[in-house]
Design goal:
This protein is mainly beta and 813 residues long. Helices cover 9% and strands 56% of the residues. It is built from 8 helices and 38 strands. The strands form 5 sheets. The protein has a 26-stranded antiparallel beta barrel. Strand 26 and strand 27 form a beta hairpin. The radius of gyration is 33 Å and the shape is globular.
């Protein structure tokens, strides 16, 4: 009843407005000779007369030939006047209104990447024209005007001559509604908290701190964390002659809004049974304002058996907020950490600072060519060079003026950018790529392919040696890490890939593919300087006829590093999974079966397994499996039913070890096995009824995801490490998602249709890490963790139930 009443008051007026605005488009104009009167030509129509004249000339010549072949038949006169643009014009407008009923504590998930709002809606429109006998065309498409996820497209041109496309699209991402934050924005990148709050919390004893913080948080204003991305893209292609072509593309992307950003530190406090921790964290509403421009232009020359292309691309990224400074809610004055090595009173600054993504620029050029040789052989190559530059000014070491720093230039301080060894990075990265491809058919039944790829990432940025940095939450001056100086290490690498592939047609329905691939890496400033991976694979494809086709493939890979240097890692047996030794098995099966022309079934199966060296720590095994079935049934010419089911399964195993006062005793090992499973089901029906006037489109989708985490100790932890090394069980995480979406419309006249849309979406989330989350979760942390200075934004979502009902009128011509 609630929905019905709301629809009467909110939607009826919306439909009346739509009908009033578009009524002139419904009423057909007077016509003469079955064509509209006084149909104006759109701009740019005049040149189309040449194309139409050519078409008429061709028609006259064809008529002459026809008359010569059959002189007893009179030639029909050819029209000299081309059809009017309006006679070929087509449009669609869809307007209406919508009501939503959304329940749940924090139902932000419902609109995470879309906007579903109430009231009058201009849902979509489409305008198109492609006059008969003319190569010209025009498309104008719009979806969701005025919404955050709106989309517009203008596409026009002349077939074989040119094509121009302009596109604008919005991509919203909602982190949360209803977050509470003590911060206010005081200028670009400057987050402030009232001085009175900082002073009060600094002077409040630890025992009374929770009550004081809760009081401030409960009265803090609510805020929405959302980042909006907008993209404008323009592309054009122009065929100058039958062989020369030009192409152009410009893309502008803007991202703006705010998102959660975490910062924090901790203090380790030893006890007789292990370590307890004093955890400190401040989650910030980071303001975002990015602008990215990409501009590319290219020219190509193509003949029947060879061609060349040249492309240039310029890219520029601008961050309008390069620095983020923020108040510490728990400190009004600066303080340096105390104790040997700054083990106490960490994160004691009054104001903190972050350097955000820096401005950068890149220039790229690419040259490609191909040539066709005898015996169905083609050779193609592509060469590319890119030059990336970044010269953003460095932020100071810290804003904490209480830190006593060593090694700084005379007359400077730790808060002064002049104390830095260099004012900017002067970053320079050059890349070079090349790819070469040879395909040939050696015999009628035997084909081969050779491919080579090369990618060189040369980071020529100079090393910078720093005298130290503000560590432990910007509270203590640290001059080294495990005796290693503080310096940047520009990463460079070179990756090469060579592949050979053969395909043998064993019989008419069966072919066999055999493949070998080598991939080699050379890295600088990584744990592995050189590594090689060898892959062998095979594939069988069988298609005995039009009713069945199948494909079975298997690949085996062996990746081996030449040597592994743990670097400054405290635990020397830890391995990075992207560089360590790995054995991979990858198998897949695909098939399609058409029982009859109106009924088809397709399915896939896949399995991937990565095995890492069990003698080391970190990721030791990763397994991925998937399977799906899709059914399509066209019961009648106007009725289609489809259904699908898929299951995805992921599992991983990790070996880990706890650090204690006597570091890394093997008795303190613990393992974690994680299993993720996702089951998805969908079914839908589309049909026309009542002499093709009543259209029904209904779809139901269901997804169930579950994460099971098991932790266990292979042995018995040391008595002095019980708190650190004892494996703690994790609750299961479950999500359930249902969606029912229906669209029913009735075509009252050839130009007008009335429709009703309905969406029902219940979403259930059972996640221990989110369920009890709150801005100040001091009471939710384990007793061994002191979280009195743990302040979050509560940027989360919870279970929800959503209903959306919309009425609309659709006008077409």
């Amino acid at each position: 009843m609630k929905i019905r009443c709301t629809l009467k008051t909110k939607l009826f007026s919306s439909l009346c407005i739509s009908l009033f605005l578009l009524w002139p488009a419904i009423v057909p104009g007077q016509t003469v000779n079955n064509s509209p009167v006084s149909a104006p030509l759109a701009s740019g129509s005049e040149p189309d007369k040449n194309a139409r004249a050519k078409e008429n000339d061709k028609a006259r010549e064809a008529a002459k030939v026809s008359n010569a072949a059959a002189p007893d038949k009179a030639a029909r006169p050819q029209p000299d006047t081309p059809p009017s643009l309006w006679s070929q014009f087509r449009f669609l407008f869809e307007m209406g209104g919508q009501f939503t009923d959304l329940t749940g504590e924090r139902p932000s998930k419902f609109e995470q990447s879309r906007q579903v709002r109430e009231g009058y809606l201009f849902r979509r429109f489409r305008i198109s024209s492609n006059p008969e006998g003319s190569p010209s065309f025009l498309r104008v498409i719009g979806r969701g005007p005025g919404e955050r996820d709106q989309h517009y497209l203008v596409d026009f041109g002349s077939y074989g001559t040119f094509r121009a496309t302009a596109e604008w699209q919005g991509y919203p991402f909602l982190y949360s509604r209803g977050s509470r934050s003590l911060f206010g924005l005081d200028g670009p990148g400057n987050l402030r908290i009232p001085d009175s709050i900082q002073q009060t919390l600094q002077n409040t004893p630890d025992a009374s701190l929770p009550a004081a913080v809760q009081g401030f948080v409960s009265s803090a204003p609510l805020t929405t964390l959302r980042v909006q991305r907008q993209m404008l893209k323009f592309t054009q292609r122009l065929n100058l002659t039958d062989h020369w072509n030009l192409r152009f593309r410009w893309t502008n992307q803007k991202r703006f809004g705010s998102r959660p950003l975490g910062t924090g530190s901790y203090e380790r406090i030893g006890t007789a049974t292990g370590d307890t921790f004093r955890v400190m964290s401040i989650e910030l509403p980071e303001p975002v304002e990015y602008i990215t421009n990409d501009l590319s232009a290219g020219i190509g020359y193509v003949r029947d058996k060879w061609g060349v292309n040249f492309d240039y691309t310029w890219s520029k990224f601008d961050n309008r907020i390069p620095l983020l400074s923020f108040d510490n809610p728990f400190r009004a004055t600066d303080l340096q950490a105390t104790g040997s090595g700054g083990v106490l009173n960490r994160m004691a600054f009054a104001r903190g600072i972050f350097a955000l993504a820096p401005d950068n620029e890149a220039h790229s050029i690419q040259l490609s060519a191909f040539v066709d040789l005898p015996r169905q052989t083609r050779v193609s190559s592509a060469l590319g060079w890119s030059f990336w530059r970044q010269n953003e000014q460095f932020a100071p070491y810290t804003l904490n003026s209480a830190i006593i720093a060593s090694g700084l230039p005379a007359g400077t301080s730790v808060t002064d950018p002049a104390s830095l060894p260099r004012r900017s990075l002067e970053g320079a990265v050059d890349t070079f790529t090349q790819e070469h491809l040879l395909t040939t058919r050696l015999t009628e039944k035997f084909a081969a392919t050779l491919r080579y790829r090369y990618y060189d990432y040369d980071n020529s940025t100079a090393d910078i040696l720093f005298p130290g940095y503000a560590a432990f939450g910007e509270s203590y001056w640290r001059t080294n890490i495990n005796s290693k100086p503080i310096e940047n290490e520009p990463l460079s690498f070179r990756r090469q890939t060579a592949m050979a592939e053969t395909v043998w047609d064993l019989a008419k329905p069966l072919n066999w593919k055999l493949e070998y691939k080598w991939e080699g890496w050379t890295r600088r400033h990584r744990q592995v300087a050189e590594s090689n991976e060898h892959t062998i694979g095979t594939q069988l494809s069988w298609q005995p006829g039009n009713t069945f086709s199948g494909k079975l493939s298997y690949h085996y890979s062996d990746r081996s590093p030449r040597a592994y240097d743990p670097g400054i890692l405290e635990f020397r047996l830890l391995r990075m999974f992207d560089q360590s030794k790995r054995l991979r098995h990858n198998a897949s099966l695909q098939m399609q079966y058409h029982f009859r022309p109106d009924l088809g079934l397709s399915g896939t199966l896949g399995y991937l397994s990565d095995d890492y060296d069990q003698n080391f720590y970190g990721l030791t095994k990763y397994v991925q499996g998937y399977g799906s079935l899709d059914l399509l049934y066209t019961a009648l010419e106007t009725t289609t039913f489809y259904a699908s089911y898929s299951r995805e399964h992921y599992s991983s195993s990790l070996n880990q070890i706890a650090k204690t006062a006597v570091p890394f005793d093997f008795a303190n090992r613990w393992n974690r096995d994680e299993r993720d499973a996702v089951d998805s089901f969908g079914a839908g029906l589309t049909t026309y009824l009542v002499k093709d006037k009543l259209f029904i489109d209904a779809h139901y989708a269901f997804s169930l995801a579950e994460t099971v985490t098991n932790t266990f100790n292979p042995g018995t932890p040391l008595a002095a490490s019980v708190l650190n090394a004892t494996a703690i069980p994790f609750p299961d995480v479950k999500t359930r998602f249902h969606e029912f979406n229906s669209d029913i419309s009735y075509q009252f006249t050839p130009n007008v249709a009335f429709g009703v849309r309905y969406i029902y979406e219940p979403y259930r989330l059972n996640d221990y890490a989110w369920d009890g989350l709150q801005p100040y979760p001091v009471t939710l942390l384990p007793t061994e963790n002191d979280g009195r200075r743990f302040l979050l934004l509560d940027s989360r979502y919870t279970s929800h139930t959503a209903h959306a009902v919309g009425l609309y009128l659709r006008f077409t011509r």
